[in-house]
Specification:
The protein is of the alpha/beta class and 237 residues long. 44% of the residues lie in helices and 14% in strands. It has one domain: NAD(P)-binding Rossmann-like Domain (Rossmann fold), CATH 3.40.50. The N and C termini lie far apart (36 Å).
Length: 237
């Protein structure tokens, strides 16, 4: 008998899909049978991920988008809605880490970038893809967060405050749609993971001492197959 893949016939959108956890998650979803829309700014990175997916027999579409552009998300949603009737999975992996500094020395340009990508783009994604998620049989949203959004840490204020706002947006959305749709929302803290962002924050750390992005992707793919309550939060250890 042919192997049954858990995500056959499903459509997934993964932001930040050109590298790290986003790329690993996109590959895992495609391996499970989903058609994955890959979005990020790095076109070459997206093409490399797509090549990997297609080489493994998966299905994907690249959609380069700069989340800092005011209408970038809206254009993406319009394009996807023009081709598909529903969106089953939205994985929000894209994030920007500004320089780690004291509160009094935050670089305003970098802070604005963090707020734009981590907060404003998240609201735009939820607003623009809400109709497509509600048309799915069981739409799911997973947002990747950070422990510093929940527990403040010295020198991490710019990133941490943007992630606190990110968490708040997702939790409010989860409550607002709980009784009017089948969409469910989860917030996942990937923990220490071997990514470029981690290397930027901890330049002296041996990357082999922390888990690879594939370990987080494995958990995300498993979570999407579970009946979790909306607003669910967990950390991948």
């Amino acid at each position: 008998m042919p192997e049954t893949k858990p995500f056959s016939g499903k459509l997934a959108l993964v932001t930040g899909a050109s590298k790290g956890i986003g790329a690993a998650t996109a590959k895992a979803l495609a391996a499970g049978g989903a058609h994955v829309v890959l979005t990020a700014r790095d076109v070459k990175g997206l093409e490399a991920v797509e090549d990997s997916i297609h080489s493994a027999g998966g299905s994907s579409t690249i959609a380069p988008v700069d989340l800092t552009e005011p209408d970038g998300v809206a254009r993406l949603a319009t394009a996807i809605a023009g081709r598909w009737d529903a969106l089953d999975y939205l994985v929000i992996s894209a994030a920007y880490l500004p320089m780690l500094t004291p509160v009094t020395q935050i670089d305003q340009k970098q802070f604005n970038q963090a707020l734009t990508i981590n907060v404003l783009a998240t609201q735009a994604l939820l607003a623009n893809f809400d109709p497509l998620l509600k048309r799915a049989d069981a739409g799911r949203v997973i947002g990747l967060t950070s422990s510093v959004g929940e527990t403040p840490r010295a020198y991490w204020s710019a990133y941490g405050s943007s992630k606190a706002a990110f968490d708040n947006l997702l939790q409010c959305y989860a409550q607002e749609i709980e009784k009017i749709s089948q969409v469910r929302v989860a917030i996942v803290d990937p923990g220490a993971t071997r990514t470029n962002m981690r290397a930027k924050a901890y330049p002296g750390e041996d990357p082999q001492t922390v888990k690879p992005p594939e370990a987080v992707a494995e958990r995300l793919v498993a979570l999407l197959q579970e009946e979790f309550p909306t607003g669910h939060r967990e950390r991948v250890n």
